[in-house]
Amino acid sequence: TSHPCPPLKYLSNKVRGMLCHCGSQNKYARLDAKLEKKMIEVKKSSSGHSNFKSIDSVIVRFPQFKDGLKNIKSVFEQYDEDSNGTIDREELKKCLEELQLHLKEEEIEDLFKSCDIDGSEGIQFNEFIVLLCLIYLLTTPSSSSMSKMGSPQLKATFDAIVEVFLFLDKNGDGRLNKKDMVKTLNESYPREKSPAHVTRTRFEEMDWDRNGKVSFREFLFALISWIGIDNDEEIAEME
């Protein structure tokens, strides 16, 4: 492979634009701080073994990630009661209650604001995937909760996605930075160092709020775009 991350070019500029203009970073701060702490804990508790050794080893798993996540669509459609393509706050509360995911009102509001990336006051399917993954990471869903989410592969898929993030987080501080990206790309292609503009582009595709750091939440949104979950319309518009 001559290009470090070919699938990344499909990231929609439209989605990136929405994220860059969705308002103050303050509405993300509390949740992102929890995620950063959690990722540090997971990194420290891991044995150091990873199934991912290069960017290519991540890319080759994209089809499996897609298969593991796409079955959540039926759950999304079940709780999108008015079939308008989004889940509002009341629909989300009902969904979480029936999935036996017991969260405080404040926690639900944090998740809703942090996953409603376009400020539409509704959670779209790609945002719903991120929301469920964050709940999985920050809480301890029961086995019945996971089965109700519609896919026996879901837990393994979420675990693998976390592992990808930890693979990219070289210094284990719970967030990604440009140095992490440079190191990862250059480890994958030791004979051909990644040009500075390539590394910068890859990093900017994840750093949607342009603060020089990539939270696990931002990483999730980027990954979902890269693997092609629910982006057929976006690709058609780009074409």
From TrEMBL:
GO MF terms held by the record: calcium ion binding
Pfam families found in the cross-reference section: EF-hand_7 (PF13499)
Domain EF-hand: 67-102, 103-138, 156-191, 194-229
SMART domains, sorted: EFh
Gene3D superfamilies reported in the protein's UniProt record: EF-hand
Repeat keyword on record: yes
UniProt key word Ion transport: no
Keywords for the protein's UniProt record, in alphabetical order: Calcium, Repeat
PANTHER family registered for this protein in UniProt: TROPONIN (PTHR23064)
Record protein name field: EF-hand domain-containing protein
Organism: Citrus sinensis (Sweet orange)
Lineage: Eukaryota, Viridiplantae, Streptophyta, Embryophyta, Tracheophyta
